[in-house]
Amino acid sequence: MDSAVSPLDEVHEKIAKAARIARRELDEITLIAVSKTHPAERIEPLLGQGHRVFGENRVQEAQQKWPALREAFPDAQLHLIGQLQSNKADDAVELFDAIHSLDRPSLLKALAKAMDKAGKQVPCFVQVNIGDEDQKGGCPIAELPAFLGAIRETDIPLGGLMCIPPADIEPAPFFAFLDKLARDNGINGLSMGMSSDYETAIMQGATHIRVGTALFGARG
Ligand SMILES: *Cc1c(COP(=O)(O)O)cnc(C)c1O
């Protein structure tokens, strides 16, 4: 066996350190290994090491890669972390165990319908446009309370809030803001933090961190 410390071990160590500093329990923090663009051969070693929670950002790519991987590892869990078109709601509900990109009423409607049809309730995180950026997806902050109200009228389990902070700015204030929005709205889950900032996100209360590059290397 290779005795070198694996990227997964390294990330686990950093998670543990951040959790210790923040006085948080490790079992409150789920590491989502973001395997988008990487082929099954790159994903299998992580599954072999016992990791089970993965993230993909495209429905079609996940449909191609994951059925075979899941046959070999039936307890693997798949989270959709990318934008979702309403016309792919049925496919997403069939394939994924959680969806992190619920951000608009039309998608809510499509997902509620898809889940009813499938008889499967998939926890959804509401993506919030935390930096109020025109080009970014996510529910506008001003519309969040009403949108959460609309979700609570459906059977869709609310997983939490999710954000992608603006690039090239210190992310901590945005993570803290998402945490405040969650508290104000009685929500526990916080999907925030990527390879460059997951330790900061953990210190600000993240329950789900989405880490790709630090585990798999750069995407081609
Ligand atoms: C790609 C992606 C990630 C992972 O990014 P890394 O910087 O590679 O860790 C996390 N969240 C979302 C929404 C992504 O699209």
Question: How would you describe the overall organization of this protein?
Answer:
The chain is 41% helix and 15% strand. The protein has helices at residues 7-21, 40-48, 59-72, 89-95, 105-118, 144-152, 172-184, 198-203, 213-216, and strands at residues 30-34, 53-56, 77-80, 98-102, 124-127, 158-162, 190-191, 208-211. The protein has one domain: Alanine racemase (TIM Barrel, Alpha-Beta Barrel). The model has no long low-confidence stretch (mean pLDDT 97). With 220 residues, the chain is α/β, with parallel strands linked by helices. It contains nine helices and eight strands. An eight-stranded parallel sheet has the order 7-6-5-4-3-2-1-8. The longest helix is centred in the N-terminal third of the chain and has 15 residues, at 7-21. It starts with 6 loop residues before the first helix and ends with a helix. The protein binds pyridoxal-5'-phosphate (PLP). The modification N6-(pyridoxal phosphate)lysine is found at residue 36. This is Pyridoxal phosphate homeostasis protein. InterPro entries: Ala_racemase_N, PLP-binding_barrel, PyrdxlP_homeostasis. Its cofactor is pyridoxal 5'-phosphate. GO terms for molecular function: pyridoxal phosphate binding.
Short description:
The chain has helices at residues 7-21, 40-48, 59-72, 89-95, 105-118, 144-152, 172-184, 198-203, 213-216; strands at residues 30-34, 53-56, 77-80, 98-102, 124-127, 158-162, 190-191, 208-211. With 220 residues, it is of the alpha/beta class.
